Amino acid sequence: MPYDPSAFPPFAVTVDLVVLTVRRHALCALAVRRGEPPFQGRWALPGGFVRDDEDLSQAAARELAEETGLRAHGPAAPDQDNGAHLEQLATYGDPKRDPRMRVVSVAHLALAPDLPAPRAGGDASNARWAPVEELLQQGGYGRDGEPVAPLAFDHAQILADGVERARSKIEYSSLATAFCPTEFTVGELRRVYEAVWGVALDPRNFHRKVTGTPGFLVPTGGTTTRQGGRPAQLFRAGGATLLNPPMLRPEV
Amino acid sequence: MPYDPSAFPPFAVTVDLVVLTVRRHALCALAVRRGEPPFQGRWALPGGFVRDDEDLSQAAARELAEETGLRAHGPAAPDQDNGAHLEQLATYGDPKRDPRMRVVSVAHLALAPDLPAPRAGGDASNARWAPVEELLQQGGYGRDGEPVAPLAFDHAQILADGVERARSKIEYSSLATAFCPTEFTVGELRRVYEAVWGVALDPRNFHRKVTGTPGFLVPTGGTTTRQGGRPAQLFRAGGATLLNPPMLRPEV
DNA sequence: GATCATAGTCGTCTTCCTGACGATAAACAC
DNA sequence: GTGTTTATCGTCAGGAAGACGACTATGATC
Q1: Which of A192, A219, B30, B73 might form a disulfide with A179, Cβ 3.0–4.6 angstroms?
Q2: CB A181 within 8 Å of CB A61
Q3: How far B67 CA sits from the closest chain A CA (Å)?
Q4: Same domain, residue pair A182 and A154
């Protein structure tokens, strides 16, 4: 693949990942600790260089597998396996976003169920699920009272954009099911919405809405009591990807 | 800005523009004729290399100004001047999308009122507004009976994605006003929706909807009869950017 | 084992929004 | 004036959502 380097400025192209999940009623993102400068020791989004023969989505899927072990499927594919939803988010190319050189980062958004434990090259201390609220508060203090350093590079902005994308997209699509295991209850799905939006939803109206939307949920016949209380029906994600009319996010 | 070329594969980064407008009741996109290989003589989306000191949005705004003379304003800025709306669309990086070398293109979407005549370096024959329907039909025949060559590179895909973005975004935002001049009537705005969606809307329900949504339209006090018939009130775009509840796109 | 707490599920009622469509208003062409 | 075109207001029925009451089926507690 010959080219004339004088004809255009050379760029490094990376993919960065906003991997979201819901743990303990909170929206969490995967963060990895940087092992080398710049921003050594700081938390950052997982990511890496795009290889010479890779498409952008391939690179993102590869990084996702390396960091979490999750297989990815695109926005169009159904939620058959236990993989994560993966889609392109946006591209960030400020000339000064990386002090070393000109780097353009194609950010991707991944939504995963709670199950997997993070693994960054097998070193658990260098990867963690952190509440997005905690990752986004600049210069504040975490739950343990330790001062919180902001994310490396422009990753706070990328994370914020990814969270906003997720928040708006579960309104009009069935994407919230990507946060759930293969089989789940209406209540578990509702808790996903509540965690992502940070609001409380009326269980009765929510139940009516999701069970009344054709193609959204398919009953599996089983029930579970894992949430306590009366046994709940188990559902699988249906074929519908678009919700019409959408799920309404409460105002304030 | 030193870097080690062996540490990562070098990429060329370009911006491509999907510039949409509404002319004669049809959604049209700006196309330029390629003057050199590959795809010499074929129509393509305007675009170019990102410069070494430019942000991506700056590069897109520069290309837009070069091709159309339009000033751009971002998604957040109000529609004060006569500029065009400009936002990032998506990034395309298939390893084989450009036969010469590895090129990653950050596509942007611009929405402009009808006014400007295209100018590609002053040569009008090398730039034109074409109905998107015509640009997207692969291997068909245009209105003049001439065979239509598909757009260069993956630009048909990019254009299709841009059109889809515009179609969905005018549902829940006030973005349709970006297709209108500073002052416009309800009927003109309705014709924008009809052209972008390719459907007919009920004038009475549309009028009730847009005038009843707070912050969407601000009456200027003037009237016009430029559409014929009874004089219509003139409006300016209001401060509201999000439409809640959204404008509903008819099914079928 | 009765009681309680918890979560799930079904209904009702009111309100808001939309789609369908009738009716009137104000310009222009002839 | 008559007809045509576009704008604007009004009415009505149907659907969806928010608020909330009521009942059900578990496990936990006394």
Answers
A1: A192
A2: no
A3: 20
A4: no
